[in-house]
Amino acid sequence: MENKTHLVDEITGHRRMRRNRKADWTRRLVQENRLTVDDLIWPIFLIPGTGILEPIPAMPGVNRMTVDKAVEAAKEAADLGIPALATFPNIEMALRDETGSNSLEKNNLINLASAAIKKAVPNIGVITDVALDPFTSHGHDGILRGNEIVNDETVDQVAQAAVYQADAGSDIIAPSEMMDGRIGAIRQALDAAGHQNVGIMSYATKFSSAFYGPYREAISTGGLLKGDKKTYYIDPANGTEAVRDAALDVEEGADMLMVKPGLPYLDVCWRLKEAFGLPTFAYQVSGEYAMIKAAAANGWIDGDKVMLETLLAFKRAGCDGILTYFAMDVARQLAKK
After folding, report:
1. What does each C-alpha distance from 29 to 32, 243, 331, 335 come to in angstroms?
2. Cα–Cα distance between 218 and 235 in angstroms, integer?
3. Does the structure show a pLDDT above 80 at 319?
4. What are the residues whose beta carbons fall under 8 Å from the beta carbon of 50, sequence distance 6 or more?
5. Exposed site from 83, 228, 236, 281, fewest CB < 10 Å?
6. Which structural domains are found in the chain, ordered by start?
7. Of all residues in the chain, what percent carry a pLDDT higher than 70?
8. CB contact at 8 A, 203 and 232
């Protein structure tokens, strides 16, 4: 029999990586990671009023919505199989003050939305944030005293707000204000109030990033912010510090961990999953979303393909799920397959 061995066979030791790539069926058979609707959490923005969908210019395709519209959106998301929503309020400026006191109103906008969504769509998860930036007149995530965001007083307030959010129907508290000790304080407050079944998804590694701009437009804090958030968010240069920060949250009782932003911090996603083994999530933030949308609108990229590729990258980096403004678009595409 003629020996058809090629030089390439000798070079590779008869190992050819392309064998498993030769056909669609083999590629599907050996695919390591898959994106499914079960991986999606849809962040939505709330505004007061009734019957309003208000487009956000910096986030094409994303709207602020009143509670009744949020309920409709929740029903549509549930029908598509999306497991959970994450809600963020844009409250009236008249209700914002130095301490974010409206966060402690039991019937504030975020709590009204939680109650309405859980009543109408009990099978969808509701994730709420206790950070104070939507409620403060200065746009910071905590209480401002002089020129300082005070840690301990902020922790007291967000722990109390977490109980009210759980009372209203929130399934998971996702504290993003990055105060020291907040996870333990929230866990103790929830348990003391009988909310042992309410989980905590810690924004374990929230970086002082330039990718948040469109989000701040969405909740109307961009023009309010005095100074920056570097005294409590993590330096983008510090990966090891991020792991240490997450370790403290794990010790304090976090059920899940989140990395924010997402794509620029895939290394951190991987490190957290490897280090702790907890369910790990990434937040594909507003700046990431806006860049894809803008490039697609200019015809520079295929927006749908880039959208799916970025989300698959989170899965490859060890994430169990992704908070993304693309959630509904992705769910519709996946439903067609």
Report:
1. 9, 34, 22, 20
2. 24
3. yes
4. 66, 67, 68
5. 228
6. 37-336 (3.20.20.70)
7. 100
8. no
Active site residues per annotation: 206, 260
Residue with tokens 């309003």: 52
Neighbours of 139 (CB within 10 A): 21
If residue 244 lies in a helix (H) or strand (E), which one and from where to where? helix 239-252
* Contacts of 229 by beta carbon, 8 Å cutoff, 6+ apart: 140, 141, 208
Handedness of CA 75, 61, 328, 164 (dihedral sign): negative
Convert the pLDDT of each residue in 74-117 to its tens digit. Answer: 999 999 999 999 999 999 999 999 999 999 999 999 999 999 99
Amino acid at 50: T
Q: Which amino acid is at 194?
A: G
The secondary structure element, H or E, covering residue 316 is helix 303-316
Distances (CA, A) of 198 to 79, 159, 171, 177, 193: 24, 13, 5, 19, 11
C-alpha gyration radius of the chain: 22
